[in-house]
Task: structure prediction
Amino acid sequence: MQSLKSGSTPSGKGAAAAPSVRRGRQGGLRNHAEYAVAWGVLKALGALPLPLARIACIGLAELAHRFWPKLRQTGMLNLRLAFPEGTDRERRRILRGEFQTLGRMLADFAHFPRLTRGNIEQLIIYDGFEVFDRARRQGRGVLFLTAHFGNWELGSFAHGVYGYPCNFVVRQMDNPRLDALINRYRSASGGRPIEKKDFARGVLRALERGETVGVLMDQNMLLEEGAFVDFFGLPASTTTGPARVARKLGTPVVLGLVIWDPKLRKYRLRFDAVEWIRRPDPEEEIAANTANFTRLIERYVRRYPEQWLWVHRRWKTRPAGEPPLYP
Result:
C-alpha cells in the first residue's frame, strides 16, 4: 500500500507524468534544433553578398516549388478561383514567380542587420512618401495597412531605417526561441512587435502615442474573428480590427505595399491614401471600410499577381452552409 501512495507503480501519478516529461524534453530539443538551423541559415546568407544570397534562396525556392506539392496545389487552386478566365500555363507562371519572390525575400531578410541609412536606397526607395507624411502630421498615429505581398517584412523594417520606426502586428510562433530570433531581425531598425493576441490593447496604445502600426490585412480569419468581404469575387473572412481601431480613434489609414520593380532591380515602398467611408450605422461603417481595404489590396494583386502569397488558404473559412473550397 505504501508503494501505491508514493505513485511508483505503473498506475500511479509518477508513471502518468513520465510521458509528459518526455514530450517536454522532445519539444525543447525540437525548439533548439529549429532555432539552430534558422540561426545558421540567416548567418550564412547574411555573410554572402546579397546577389549571391538571392541566387541561393531563389534556387531553394525553386526546389520547394517542385517538391512541395501541397503548397503547389493550394496555389493553383487559389489561382483558378481568382482568375477563372486564365489558363493553367499562366497560373503556373504566376505561382513560380511567387516562389521566386519568397526566395528573394528570405535573402533580403538575412541582410537586415547590414541595412543602414547609408545603403538602404540600394535595396528599396519610397514611392508616395508624401501620403504617409501627410497622415503622420495629423498627430493621431498612422495605421499602415499591408499584405503578404512583395517583401512585406521589408516594409516596416525599411521604414524604420529611413527614420520612421513602425510597430507591427505578428502572430507569436510556437517555438519561443525562433520567435525571438525572427523578431530581433524585424526590430533591428527600431520597430516593435505587437502580438496578435494583444491586438486591440497594443494597437490602441501605440496609436494613442502617435506612432505607426503596420497590419497585414489579407489572412483568412476564423468565422467568429472576421467578416466576409469580397476578394476576387468570393467571400473572404477578413479581420475588422483595423477598421474598428481607425473608427474609434480617428486614425488616418494608408496602404503600404513593398513592390519589386524588375526595371529598377530594387523595391518600391508604395504608399496610397485610403479614403474613409462614412455610414450611419457603426457596424455598417466598419464592414464598408474593411471591404474597401481589401479591394485596394486586390487591385495591386491583380496588377502584380506573382508577388502575392497564393499558397495561403485565403478562402478557407466559408459562409454558413457553403461547402469547403480546399481538400
In short: Residues 1-15 have pLDDT under 50 and may be disordered. The two ends are 54 Å apart (CA to CA). The chain is about 50% helix and 15% strand. The first helix runs from residue 2 to 6.
